[in-house]
């Protein structure tokens, strides 16, 4: 079982993790005999949050209920409220998970709190720009490991820019190995290009 924890907080950028949560929750394109995936929302508390898109979400669990295991995945979405101290525990949990071999995936504003905590100092990563991290994160010392790409994976850490939602999802699916290689290629090509031929290719990869 793969336990995926989607951290939710006020002003969460809905679109940045939409591909990830939709596909992992539905499993509609999973390969045969793929590991089962459980997707849960996690909050600093169980009080409801409101996303940037105006959607109200009530977290199912809190940070201290996250199961630490190599198969655990923690999703950290972009938001304008990451500087609230109430989110410190989930950054500490992210550090713990990375050290234990679990996967942490952060996009946009979530990369800033990882940078400030020193998590990115010796791991290949990306964000909205190197200057963005240097400006917002006084304790950040990971410039040598920064890559100017939309999304990148370094072992069990996946990071992305605000414009990298699709590649972010692709990197996560590849890491979890829940799609066949052909399915993942066709899935990405279709959503990247909009060419319906890739959708037919996608359907063919799922044929019995």
From TrEMBL:
Domain DJ-1/PfpI residue range list? 4-170
Q: Which Pfam families match?
A: DJ-1_PfpI
- InterPro entries membership: Class_I_gatase-like, DJ-1/PfpI
Question: Which keywords fit this entry according to its UniProt record?
Answer: Glutamine amidotransferase, Transferase
Q: Name one GO molecular function term.
A: transferase activity
Q: What is this protein called?
A: Glutamine amidotransferase
């Amino acid at each position: 079982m793969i336990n995926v924890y989607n951290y939710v907080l006020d002003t969460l950028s809905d679109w940045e993790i939409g591909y990830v949560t939709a596909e992992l929750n539905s499993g509609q394109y999973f390969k045969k005999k793929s590991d089962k995936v459980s997707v849960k929302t996690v909050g600093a508390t169980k009080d409801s949050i409101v996303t940037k898109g105006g959607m109200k979400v009530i977290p199912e669990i809190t940070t201290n209920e996250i199961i630490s295991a190599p198969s655990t995945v923690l999703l950290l979405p972009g938001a304008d409220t990451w500087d609230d101290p109430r989110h410190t525990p989930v950054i500490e949990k992210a550090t713990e998970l990375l050290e234990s071999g679990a996967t942490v995936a952060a996009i946009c504003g979530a990369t800033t709190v990882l940078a400030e905590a020193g998590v990115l100092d010796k791991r290949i990563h990306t964000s909205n720009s190197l200057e963005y991290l240097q400006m917002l994160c006084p304790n950040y010392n990971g410039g040598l490991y920064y890559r100017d790409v939309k999304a990148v994976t370094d072992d069990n850490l996946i990071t992305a820019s605000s414009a990298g939602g699709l590649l972010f999802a692709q990197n996560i699916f590849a890491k979890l190995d829940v799609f066949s290689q052909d399915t993942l290629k066709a899935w990405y090509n279709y959503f990247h290009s909009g060419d319906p031929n890739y959708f037919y290719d996608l359907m063919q990869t799922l044929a019995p």
